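To the wet lab folks,

You asked to see what we're planning to order before we commit. Fair enough. Below is the target structure as tokens, and below that is the sequence we designed to fit it. If anything looks off to you, flag it before the synthesis order goes out.
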């Protein structure tokens, strides 16, 4: 079961993969662990600077299946044809949200439909 209170102590750190210092990809695996799901590669050193996030996200997608929003699904967010941000779907109070981690805001939980409106394209993967 997902406990949103755990994530109140998270601070955003570029390249952060170890709780409580996480970046957008770091939160994906932390949430997946909490949900009892298999972890994805940690992509140590990969950030959204340059082409690293886009390259590694697209490689990972080759081994995943595209899906509708569901708890534990990874979220790939695009600017044009480039993956520029990632998140993970969670369930709180019976509703689906996207958990994300950003500089200055740390962890936020947005309803899926509101999250989707922020990007030119959003895909869900499991």
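Sequence we intend to order:
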């Amino acid at each position: 079961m997902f406990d949103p209170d755990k994530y109140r102590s998270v601070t955003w750190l570029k390249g952060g993969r170890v709780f409580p210092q996480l970046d957008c990809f770091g939160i994906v695996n932390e949430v997946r662990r909490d949900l009892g799901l298999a972890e994805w590669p940690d992509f140590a050193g990969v950030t959204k600077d340059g082409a690293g996030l886009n390259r590694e996200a697209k490689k990972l997608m080759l081994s995943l299946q595209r899906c509708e929003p569901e708890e534990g699904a990874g979220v790939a967010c695009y600017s044009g044809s480039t993956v520029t941000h990632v998140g993970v779907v969670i369930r709180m109070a019976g509703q689906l949200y996207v958990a994300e981690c950003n500089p200055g805001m740390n962890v936020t939980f947005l309803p899926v439909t509101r999250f989707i409106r922020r990007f030119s394209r959003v895909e869900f993967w499991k």
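Structural context that might help your review: The first helix runs from residue 24 to 34. The two ends are 18 Å apart (CA to CA).

Thanks,
Computational group
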